[in-house]
Amino acid sequence: MFGYSGKILHIDLAKRKSWVEPKAEPWYKTYIGGTSMATRLCWENIEAGCDPLAPGNPICIAGGLFAGTPVPVGGKWGIASKSPLTGFIADSLSGSWFAVALKRSGWDGIVIHGASPDWVYILVDDDVVTFRPASHLLGKGTFATEEAIREELGDDQVRSATIGPAGEKGVLYANVTNDGRQAGRTGHGAVWGSKKLKALSVRGTGDVKVADPETLLKLALDISKTAQGPYTEKYRVLGTASNVLNMNRLGLLPTRNYQEGEFEHAESISGEYLKEHHAVKTVACAGCPIACEQMRRVNDGPYTGAMSGIEYESLYAVSSNLGIGDVRVAIKLIELCDQGGMDSMSGGVTLGWAMETFERGVFKKEDFKCKKYPEGFEPNFGNGEAAVALCEMIINREGIGDLLALGTRKASAKVDAERGSETYKWAMHIKGLENPGYDLRGLKTFALGASVVPRGGCHNRSAAYDVDISGEADRFSVDEKRGALAKDSEEYAAVYDTLPLCKFIRRCFTGKADRAGAWPVIAKLINATTGWDMGYDDVDMIGVHCITIKKAFNIREGWTRKDDHLPWRTQHEAMTKGKSANCMVTEKELEYMKDQYYEAKGWTKKGLIPKEQLVKLGMEDLAKEIGV
Ligand code: SF4
Fold this sequence. Notes:
By secondary structure, the protein is of the alpha+beta class. It contains 24 helices and 17 strands.
């Protein structure tokens, strides 16, 4: 086989042993790589129904088909487990040299089973696996851990995926970090922490063999050239923070825990402001000619020297969403999250919930006692000092940080049970995963898309916001086409997540983010890598297979139609300001759109996958375990 080694590495942390599982070509043709292959590995290796923080929940890692080849933006890897935050599939991607090392080490995927009795890190040195003590690394941040392992091994070519203190302490939205990039959302870091796994280090020295190197190189060079042109300019110059002013103009910028969609200090947290006052440099994932990550530093005030890579989704969560207009606080908060190994989106949205809960009188000052503030403090919206203190408390699970480490769904349920309150009304999550940086009330198609995404509230797994924002659909109303549009956007995104290729390349094929220009080129890339003979329809099926395995995973874990929901606020409270004022997505509208979506997918009215469809997709082996 070209492009693959045909081997999955299994590692048992409890028994300290490893073994090899061969896989045949048809398996790769169905699951390819990235989130799809990682989810399939999870399907095959998990104890269905297990506690996500128990040894029966494996860590499943899948390489990228194009990692280690000249294909630009293909240096990515996927990871899946059962999420401790949602109880459903946790699937994430990360772009880094770790992906290249993994590919060069000769493994298409790695499955880590069980739990270690003591803190360890694993070294995969090509085909040799060793377990190394890690108690001396405890408490270290994510970046510091990577550095310490490199020094310890005396090799700066070793690439490590690590967890920080948040993962060690089981914050349910802890991340796994590598080369400064995050495999974020859904709590992978907590799963690693539950296994006492501080890091996975890889040294890969082999070649990556492809079927047609000349054609692949030519295609890669052509794409790289376009990727440095106008279609990616906004990412190269401002990064994704360029979205701040656009979202604010549309009345969609989450403000004060999604109460409004317009923020009076949007200018001072914008990508433009950050570039002018805080620019340091741009950084790229492995093999990326775009380099969208904008490093920004604080140059004065109490957080002088704080520095972080700023993405829109982290930025809105810790600035407008907390009513904080001082972008220096946002840089500090993102630095704390990244180094602590904590998802800044879920962290920011959970802080927003805590601030609103305080402002509405459910939480009192004394609930916020900690070592630094023995009398407690008052975390009103806009209070940056309080936000920084709370962020540190979550990472260390100190005081109320222990509750906030559970995320908005579990924290609100606990508080409401204990205090008789109704804080669930402002807990902004879908399936337990905190919402992304778009107010769904003003984006009807994306509201549907986000509600049905298997991993929960997410902007990456459904591209349906493109449909609303581009004007392809009226974002303020519902019609009979929304189900098909949400289905198409989700499967479109899933093709990129499976290969994986960074979606920021999506306009570099024809200038439009659509299948027509991209799929023929992507088919050529796949064929030149593997020697297969894929065409347009085969590329399209990559996305269908990906969504099917994730959905099957969720069904096996007990998913029902009511799990495709929206936050209470999105359905019952309209915004009062800006261009999306007076909008909501009513329960009737959502149920109507879900009917359309399930029908477009060829699923039952209950949202279940019929056996005939699995047979048609060549995935009939899933049928028995999901009861069809
Ligand atoms: S565009 Fe940005 S996110 Fe995408 S691969 Fe390049 S650096 Fe990474």
